[in-house]
Every structure is written in structure tokens, then in C-alpha cells.
DNA sequence: CTTTGGATCGTCT
DNA sequence: GACGATCCAAAGG
């Protein structure tokens, strides 16, 4: 039993939206009728033009244009020339706020995920990283700009009976060199499917 | 277990 | 021309 993720819950600062996305579902439908579903267990908030680690820090460009769109869009970018990474756009239309999805727990369509993640043995390693989850779910740059809150989209954000954790684990973000001090990474506590990435900043 | 280096290319300087 | 919001395999302790 699942319902569309309410768009109103994506309005506002990415730091407020990010923990709300924990335990939400991402579903991806393919043309052959198959569906892959993952449960979000790790996210990071990026605060647009006020955040030196954000792609939008130096303003709007062709690449980051989707980040400036309305909340509920999917922002997909290429990482290191090799991988795809996916964000949920937050904020309000015209303001660049985004939440990077860093890990999902495989829920459905596992065979299909394994097909796109050849050689992966353990189920928990299928989508425990931002590049890995895009590969496992079949998300690419073609999906940039998808409205995650529309029932007609191939990629959708859903909420089922599992609420976000009341006390999410918080750390500094992973893989960045600026804005390292902010604890804007949120995780489902003690979940086996979180990424292996190490926080960039000091801890406390 | 941890550390290191290579792959690979669009984007912005 | 440099540099990533990464991943993986290989080598070292």
C-alpha cells in the first residue's frame, strides 16, 4: 500500500526536506512493464547558491537548470564522467535546493537490478551508493527533469506505511571539499544498506 | 581490515 | 586545461 509522496513535503529548505525522504520509496517503471523499487535509507542536503558544495553555488547553468525548477523534479547529473547520481529537487520554483539520494534498500525488481549490476553478490551492495543506486534502478541522464510526484512519470516517489525515523543519524557530507563542516547527511540508523562513503568533515 | 590509483568526460575556468 | 556530490580492483598491514 503506497501513495504519492506529497509535493508540499518537498517545499522548503533541503535540510528540512532531506530527513523526510528517509524510508520513502522510489519506483522505476520500464517499457517492458517491469518495476524496480528501492527504499531511501541515506540522503544529503545541498543548499543551492548558499552552499559551496552545491552544483548551483555559482548560479544557474545548463547542467544544474533542473535544480532551479519546482520541488518534486528529479535532478540527474553525471559524476566523474562515469556514473549517474540522482537528486530530489526541493525549495520553491526558482530557488536551487536539492537532496542527493545516496543509498536505497532494494525492495522489488531485484532480478532486474542484478542484471544492471553484474557481479554484485550481496543484496546490500546493489544500491548502497549514489552511483550504484542509479545503475541498479536504471536511472540515467535521460530522466533529468522527471516529475517524481506525477502518477504518469516512469520514476515516482512514494510513501508507504514506514515513517521516517524520529531520530535520523546525522553526519557531515561525503566526497566534497568545500562546505565540509555542515552535518547535512541523514541516514536511517543502523541500516545495513547505507553507503560506505566516509564523512568529509570532522565529527562531533 | 585500510589505502591507493585508474577509469572517463561533461562542465566550467 | 583541470576537476569532480564515485566505484572498484588490487595491493599492503
What this model shows, in words?
- Helix content is 11%, strand content 26%.
- It has 3 helices and 9 strands; from the N terminus they run E-H-E-E-E-E-E-H-H-E-E-E.
- The chain is globular, with a radius of gyration of 15 Å.
- Strands 1, 2, 3, 4, 5, 6, 7, 8 and 9 form a 9-stranded antiparallel beta sheet that branches.
- It binds a DNA duplex (13 and 13 nucleotides) through strand 4, strand 5 and helix 3.
Q: What's a concise summary of this model?
A:
With 204 residues, the protein is of the alpha+beta class.
- State the end-to-end distance: 39 Å
Specify Rg, calculated over alpha carbons. 15 Å
Total count of strands: 9
Question: Given the structure, what is the number of helices?
Answer: 3
Report the principal-axis shape: globular
As residue ranges, the low-confidence spans are none
Overall CATH architecture: Roll
The fold-level CATH name is 3-methyladenine DNA Glycosylase, Chain A
Amino acid at each position: 500500500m503506497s501513495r504519492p509522496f506529497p509535493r508540499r513535503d518537498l517545499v522548503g529548505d533541503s535540510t528540512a526536506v532531506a530527513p523526510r525522504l528517509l524510508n520513502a520509496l522510489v519506483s522505476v517503471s520500464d517499457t517492458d512493464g517491469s518495476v524496480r523499487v528501492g527504499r531511501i535509507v541515506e540522503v544529503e542536503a545541498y543548499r543551492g547558491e548558499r552552499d559551496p558544495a552545491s552544483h548551483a553555488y555559482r548560479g544557474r547553468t545548463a547542467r544544474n537548470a533542473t535544480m532551479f525548477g519546482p520541488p518534486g523534479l528529479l535532478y540527474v547529473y553525471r559524476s566523474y564522467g562515469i556514473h549517474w547520481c540522482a537528486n530530489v529537487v526541493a525549495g520553491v520554483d526558482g530557488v536551487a535546493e536539492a537532496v542527493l539520494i545516496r543509498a536505497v534498500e532494494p525492495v522489488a525488481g531485484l532480478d532486474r537490478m542484478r542484471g544492471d549490476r553484474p557481479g554484485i553478490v550481496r543484496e546490500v551492495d546493489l544500491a548502497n551508493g549514489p552511483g550504484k543506486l542509479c545503475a541498479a534502478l536504471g536511472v540515467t541522464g535521460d530522466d533529468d527533469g522527471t516529475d517524481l510526484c506525477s502518477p504518469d512519470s516512469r520514476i515516482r516517489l512514494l510513501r508507504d506505511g514506514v515513517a521516517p525515523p524520529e531520530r535520523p543519524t546525522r553526519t557531515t557530507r561525503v566526497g566534497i571539499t568545500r562546505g565540509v563542516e555542515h552535518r547535512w547527511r541523514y541516514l536511517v540508523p543502523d541500516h545495513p544498506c547505507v553507503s560506505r562513503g566516509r564523512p568529509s568533515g570532522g565529527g562531533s
